[in-house]
Every structure is written in structure tokens, then in C-alpha cells.
Amino acid sequence: MKIVSLNLENTGLEIKDLCKKLVEEADEELILIVEPREDAVKILSDAALSRISEEEAIEKLAAELNNLSRGIAEENKRIVEAEIVESLNKISEYLRAEKKAGGATPKGISLMLNTLCNTITIIVSNHFKSLGKDAKWLTAGQAGFTLIEDYELPWSHYVSLSKPEELRKALTGILVLSGRVCFDKQGNETNLRKGMGSVIAILVANEIGVKEVYVPKANGGVYTADPNIVENARVIPSLSYAEALELSRLGEWFVSPQAVELAEELGVRILVTNIKSPFKESTIIGFEKAVEKQIVKAVAMIPDMSILTVEGAAMAGTPGVASAILGEVAKRGVSICMISQDASEVGITLVVRDADLERALKGLREGFSRERIVKRIRIQRNVAVISAVGEGMRGTRGVAARIFSAVAEAGVNVLAIAQGSSETSISFVVLMEDAKKAVKAVHDKVILGIQ
Fold first, then answer.
1. Are residues 206 and 329 in the same domain?
2. In which domain, by residue range, is 376 found?
């Protein structure tokens, strides 16, 4: 039995070709957990919020679904085409209902997303049927998974295999799971956040006693840097769970951070592979000791960020100031990417996404409008966070000096610095215009050691 976590965001081949390769290389039994592309999800949310028209949304979704169904055999094609038409009609009805109700509701968006995800899963299962295989599809909820916590911000969003007997009943032939469609504790259908399909894959592996999950990607493996930025980026043969966790948090989307944590807890290896050979590992994530000697394994960039610096002499020695600042930002649903505080305690620097800057700024101004603790709030837009990742950094002297010397030699000014308590990563902020130079400098001079 092989388990594959497939996020369509990562695919470069037509689904027909991928399914053929999975059938050729897998045993007769295969579990495939499927998640949609985020562009398709965004079409739904944009239409629900009236950013695009209903007609435009349906046209784009039809193109997405028809493209996915390309190559299905004639005997299955009519079933799929009918399913696509029915699903698009349902989504149109939901959009009209939302408009009449005066705007998008979480329930309406959830219903539309579930319809889209299930249709994609049906399409994938029919690709396998076109290859003469016994394939069926289920939602994650129908396979026994339950969303156990879901708060608005979301402080917690987790899924549990509450009915393992439902999963085991379905384990014949090829099983395709809709990885973002689940049941809540009341038994109602709900949807999961991006990346939770990879959590489901880990839980499935643990339940049936399989010790690895395959994650195919278009360019194969996890790289030392983004190949689109650094031409000589290389595939990393192995990563520890801690290193993979840092990279997944930084947006290197092979699986979600929750899946990495769970894989470590349950002892399940994650094999990131090339989509052209989906069962031949490129990068192994697990307990294995790395064969390469680099202290720094990878460098990643988070673009389109902004800096918020909160200052005030009265902040020094005042208990609870940092907590209050972070609390005001959190109330607005803003995630903080990086935090740095002056040793003098008179300034705290927060790094947030450009898209969240105004909400964060409004929260701070409103929260401290009557306080004399905060004197000023300075902002700087158009910056990027650069992170160097590697477990070998822990306890190794001079790593930070090498990183910042390389960056300085490239003519890049560093605006803020932070290091994780695990010593697995060092992060710093630079202007967006200097971000690629910084990534290349760290990659070539620190990771590859090119002088």
C-alpha cells in the first residue's frame, strides 16, 4: 500500500500523466489524498466577496475543471462532464443566494469549496478508471476524519481519525480522498484549511502501519534555494523534521507544518519526489542523519512584507507591553512573521505581510490611543524576510558571521535580525529590491562555500 499526498499546486504534468505513472509504479492498492490549487479556491472567495462577477468565476472554474479532466477515456468522460456541469450549477446557486443574503457567509463559502474539492476528486478517480483500475472516491469525512477544533483566527484547526473502521472498509483498490472536505463533531460537512490533506495522509499512514508518505512535486525534491532565483540550487538529499518544519513555515510548500510535526510524533517519513517518478525519493524527511555536511541546508525568502516598529521610552521596564502589542495585532487576525526587540526595551519590531499592514497599524493605533507608553509607530513597506535553515547551526560558532558577511559583501543592508530558540534558523529583513541578491549570497557563499 502506497500513500500519496497530492497538492495540485505542486503539479506540472497533466493529471492523466500523473495517474498513469502512479498506476505503473504503485502496487494494486494506492491511497491518494488530493487538494485543489489555491488559485481555484481564490476564484470562489473573490466571487463570494463580489471582487469578480459570477459569470467570470464560473468561466474560470469551468476552465480549471475541464483542464483537469483532459485525457479521460470516452466511457468515463460523459459522467465527468455531467458532474462538472452539476457542480458549476450548484456553485452558481450558492453565489446568487449569497448575493441575496447581502454578502458572503462562512457557510456559503464552505459549501462552494466542498463542491469544488469533491468534483476535482471525482475527476481524478475517473482518470484511474480510464486506466482500467478499480478506483473510488470519498471525502475525508466519509473516510472517518473529523475536524475537532476550529476557532475563527484560527488558534487551532486540527483533524482526527475518529472512525478508523470507515477508512479500513474503503481500503480496496485505489482510494482517492478529497483532502479538504471533512465532518465536524456534529456530523455536518465542513472544509479544512490548506495543507490539511497532508495531515490526513500522515494519519492514514499511521493507522494502516505504513511508514512513509510520498509527496510529488513538479520540480522534484526540496531545494537549497528557490531554483527560480538561484540557478545552481540543488536538491537536498535529506532533512531532519526540525529543518523541514522551518522550511514549511517559510512557505516551502511540500507539506503543511502541522503534517511535519505529526510525522515526527508518529515516526512517519515524508518522501518528497519528482512528479515524473513519484515513488523515487528526492528528499527524505525523517530521523535519518544527513549525508551532506552543510551546516546551513537551505535559504528561503518570504516576499512582500512590511516592518512595524513600536517605540516609546516608557516601554522600558513596563511589564506586559509586548503582550499588549501582540494582542492588539492578533485581535485583527494578523499573523506576525518575525519579532525583534531592543535590549533597551524601548522598541519592538514586528514583521507582517504587506496585505495585513493596515489592519495591524489600525489595531496598534486604536489599542494605544489613550496610552502614553507608545510614543511612535514607524512603518517600512516592501521588504522581504530571508531565512537560513540548518540543524548544523546549533552550537556551531561563526555561522551568523558568515551569513552576514556574505550579505554585506553583496552590498545588501540588513534592517532587522531574529534567531529561533531552536537555533535551526536565522532570519533577517532586507529591502525587496535586495532580496534576491541576499538569497544568492547566502546560498553561494555559505551553503555551497563558493569563494
1. no
2. 298-447
